[in-house]
Amino acid sequence: MSKGFPENFLWGGAIAANQAEGAWNVDGKGPSVADIAMYRPHLNVEDYEAHQTVTTEMIERAMQDSDVKKYPKRRGIDFYHRYKEDLALFAEMGFKALRVSIAWSRIFPTGEENEPNESGLKFYDGLFKEMKRLGIEPIVTLSHYEMPLALSVKYNGWAERKVIDDFVKFSNVCFSRYKDLVKYWLTFNEIDSIIRHPFTTAGIVPDRCPEGKVEETIYQALHHQFVASALVTADCHRIIPGSQVGCMLTMLTTYPNTCHPKDVEITLMRNLHTYFYADVQVFGEYPPLIETMLEQKNIHLQMEPGDREILRKHTVDFVSFSYYMSLTESAKEGLERASGNTITGVKNPYLPSTEWGWQIDPVGLKISLIELYDRYRKPLLIVENGMGAVDQVESDGSIHDDYRINYFREHFKQMKEAVEAGVDLFGYTSWAPIDIISAGTSQMSKRYGFIYVDQDDEGNGTLQRSRKDSFYWYKKVIETNGENL
Ligand code: BG6
In the chain, how many domains are there? Predict the structure, then answer.
C-alpha cells in the first residue's frame, strides 16, 4: 500500500497581485513596474533579452499612456473587486491554501513614504480574513515582479542599496499588520529571474547602469535582495512567532543532450547556477564556485562588513519553487532550441510541448523534488506549476480542458512518487487556479485556470467566472488527498 500525500497537505493555487488584481491606480496605489509591461503576444523567447530590455524613454512614454489595452496588467481580472467571488470558487474546490502577493505600491505608493497607505492595507485585511473564514491558508509573497515604479526611476531599482531599507520597512508593516492571519511568507518570487529580466524583477534599466557594467549591476542588485531577504526573514520570525519563511526558485532542471562529457559539464554548470540562488538563502553563504565565477567575469560586489553575517544567520525555513518544464543543454552550437519560462534550451525529442512551446516533463518534477530535497534537507513547497493553453468555450458554456487535466495528473503522479521516496513536500499550489494575465506576454488567452474568466486579450468581456472540466477534477483530487488521480 502506498502512503501517498501527507495528511494536511496544502493543496491550492497561486496568483500574483500584478497579474490578477487590476485596479492599478485605485485607493492610492502607486504605479509598479508591472503597470508598464506591454502586451506582447509575439514574444519570441529566443530574443528574450532584447524584448526584456526596458529603456528610460519607454518608461516615460508608458507613464503618459493611459491606454490600458497596451498594458493589460493594469486591469488584471479585477480580483481587487471580485476576490470574494473567486475565493468562494477556490473554497468550492476545497483549497487548503492560496498563494497571493502583496502589491508593494498599494502599501507604499512610491516605496518611500513614512506612513503606509491605509486603504491598501485594508484590502489585504479583507482578503486574508476571508481566506481564513473559508479555511484557506494564505501563503504570501512579498515581492512578485511589482516593485514601486518610482524606486526604479529614482534609484535604478535594487541597484541602489537604500532599497533594502524600503523593502524592510514595507515587509515589517505587512508582518505587524497580518501577524494573526498569515503564517507562511515568501520573500522574492523567482529571485534568480533577475538575471533574465532585471527590470521586471528588480527595476533595473540598463541605460542607467554605468557603462559596461550592466551585468555587475544586476549581481549587485541580487546581493541587495539576498541581504533584504535575510533581514526580513529575521524580522518575520521576531514579529510572528511560529511563522515560516521560504525562498522561491525557478526550478530549471537541465539534462545533458548526450552523454558526451562536454554536454554533461555544461549541464552541470547550468544546474549549479540554478541552485546558487537557493544555496545562498538556505546555506547562508555564496557557493565558492560562484564567487570564483564572478571574479572571472570581473564582477566585484560591494558588500558591507556585516552582510555575510546577516546571510549566515538568517536562513529560510523551507524551499519553495516553480516548475513548468525541464531544459536540455549541449556544448554543441546550432541545435534546434525550444522555448521555456523566459529561457530556452536544446529541444528534447522525448517531450511534447504546450502551444507556447514549453516542453512538458512530469518526470522532471520528480527529479527536481529529489534533487532539491537531497541538497537542502528542508521541507519543500511547490508554489507554481501548470500549463498555459487556449481554451475553447462550447455553446453551452462548458470548457473541456482534458489537456490541462492530463498535465496535472501526470505531474501529481510524479509528485506522489517523490513523496513516497521520502521527499518532505508539504504543499502544492498550481499556477494559476483562475485565468489571469500572463507574466511574460501579458496575454489573457494564455490560460492556466481551473476557472475561466470571460475576458480577451484586448480586455473585452464580462469578466464572468465559470468552471472548466479541470475544476471538478481538481476538486476530487483535493477531496481524496491525491489518491484519486
Ligand atoms: C512564473 C512567474 O515564472 O511563470 C509567474 O512567477 C508567471 O508570475 C508564470 O505567470 C507563468 O508565466 P507566463 O508568462 O506564462 O504567465
Answer: 1
pTM of the model: 0.97
pLDDT-based confidence at residue 192 (cuts at 50, 70, 90): very high
Range of the domain at 89: 10-479
Contact 465, 92 (CB under 8 A): no
Does residue 439 line the site of ligand 1, with CB under 6 A? Answer: yes
User: Is 78's pLDDT higher than 60?
Assistant: yes
Q: Is the CB of 229 under 6 A from ligand 1?
A: no
Residue with CA nearest ligand 1 atom 3? 341
Question: Does residue 441 belong to any structural domain of this protein?
Answer: yes
* Ligand 1 center from residue 432 Cα (angstroms): 9
Asked if 71 contacts 38 with a C-beta cutoff of 8 angstroms, the reply is: yes
Tell me, using a 6 A CB cutoff, whether residue 16 lines ligand 1.
yes
CB atoms within 10 A of CB 3: 8
CB 184 within 8 A of CB 142: no
Residue 4 included in any domain:
no
- Closest ligand 1 atom, CA of 437? 16
Question: In 10 A of CB 51, how many CB atoms?
Answer: 18
pLDDT of 2 higher than 60: no
What is the radius of gyration, based on Cα positions, of the chain? 21
- Which DSSP letter does residue 446 get? S
Query: Which CATH number does the domain housing residue 328 bear?
Result: 3.20.20.80
How many A from CA of 342 to the centre of ligand 1?
Answer: 9
360 domain-assigned = yes
Which atom of ligand 1 is least distant from the CA of 446?
15
Decide if 111 is inside a domain.
Answer: yes
Q: How far is the CA of 303 from the centre of ligand 1 (A)?
A: 31
CA of 439 to the centre of ligand 1 (A): 5
How does residue 372 score in pLDDT terms, banded at 50, 70 and 90? Answer: very high
Residue-wise pLDDT for 308-334, tens only, equals: 999 999 999 999 999 999 999 999 999
Is residue 221 over pLDDT 70? yes
